[in-house]
Please model this.
Amino acid sequence: MSEFDEKQERIHGLLAAHGLEALLLRRVSSFAWATCGAASYVNSATTEGSAALVVSRSGRHLITSNVEATRLDQEEGLRAQGWEFHVAPWHETRDAVAELTRGLRLGTDLPCPEGLDLSGEMTRLRASLTPEEGERFASLGGLCAQAMDSAIRQVRPGQTEHEIAACLAREAEWRGAQAIVNLIATDERVFKFRHPLPADRKLERYAMLVLCGRKGGLVCSITRLVHFGSLPDDLRRKAEAVAQVDAALIEATRPGRSLGEIFRMAVAAYARVGFADEWKLHHQGGPAGYEPREMLARPDSTELVAAGQAFAWNPSITGTKSEDTILVGESGNTVLTQISGWPLLEIPAEAGGKLARPAVLEIL
Model:
């Protein structure tokens, strides 16, 4: 069965499970998932795209304006994929979705009064990757790792955070990965903010670069830090501690284990390394897919890890962070965003052996 056919089968299974007759997909991430990677957006930051999909028991429908139809047909190949196009002039107010779904028991991936909200179910479908998606994730992870490595090695004292962000975006975009999250902090801002939007602050010694790169709808996440001069002892201790928490998260992410159990193991790891309350200051991450995080792990999360899923954990201790995207395999996990030649910390694993986590790059 092809990836597309498998997803159609999953959609019809979802409809049957809820006694529905049609599913409306408006989210950019759901559109990309259902079409195996097509882009419905114009504004790359939007949640709802410029085209929608309706899947019913009798057909597959794509609704858009004349502005988007040609690209979706000729470049995304969606007519050839089997979608029936419903194209209206951009200036018309006719609601083609309402016409197509009138009288049908409807499910939706965004809350709306016309249908049953299935956003949670769609999140789980997007997080359950096919083997083809796993291969595309691995390729994207390599692109994001290359972009981060190239950008962070161009960082120099005196550059503004905006300059560093521009470099990171350039390195990602020219490789074909959209930098949909591009966070930069320097010096004291690394310690102040977990989500540091780039500012005019000039780098003196210490910088954190965060990238979420998107290609074909999938999103890969990676963080790296660089310090000019020897790392202060207190910061080195924090960097080693957060790497231990990250290693614990990665080791715990195995098929059949719940996200809640993994989260609780991370909380225990924070306490073990001497920073018991730091987990309260930022989320720890979770399954990745067509959103940077399809869901966040919480203490009470019941969702189970499955082989083939991607995860992006991002533990942080004030002033440090550790983040890569991994793919869960039957016999072990693979780090998709590993950077060749990057300095590593070898963390002892509970099951024996060691897990390599990125250190802070020190430029002496």
User: Anything to note?
Assistant: The chain has a mean pLDDT of 97. Residues 131-152 form the longest helix (22 residues).
